[in-house]
Specification:
Helix content is 72%, strand content 0%. It is mainly alpha-helical and 109 residues long. It has a domain at 35-104: Orthogonal Bundle (Rna Polymerase Sigma Factor, Chain: A), CATH 1.10.1740.
């Protein structure tokens, strides 16, 4: 059928498995399905476009690096990806708090 994605009826779990096996079109389709929600979540939590873009990118890099740890019986791929996003948002917020403390610290002269 014209205009159909190559894996249109493939589950997210199958797309992840195919992406981990090196199938770029499966990764692109999974990315296109999940990126908007992950970006919106990260933006909501950080109020920063830059941080949200960083988190979104890192989620998909993590899926490629550590996606083999995904277990379908524990939830869907979207939930797994959002769990990664949550951890990355926490890391970004912690980094920003530390930076703010360093900047706010009075100088000793």
């Amino acid at each position: 059928m014209a205009g159909m994605e190559p894996h249109e009826r493939t589950s997210d779990a199958e797309l992840l498995a195919l992406a981990l096996a090196g199938e770029e079109s499966a990764f692109v389709q999974l990315y296109n399905k999940l990126k908007g929600g992950i970006f919106r979540y990260a933006f909501y939590m950080t109020n920063s476009t830059c941080a949200a873009e960083e988190v979104t990118q890192e989620v998909f890099m993590s899926l490629l690096k550590e996606g083999s740890s995904y277990r379908q019986e524990r939830g869907d791929v979207g939930a797994f990806a959002f769990g990664i996003a949550r951890n990355l948002v926490r890391r970004v917020r912690r980094r920003e708090r530390l930076s703010a403390r360093v900047i706010a610290r009075p100088r000793l002269t």
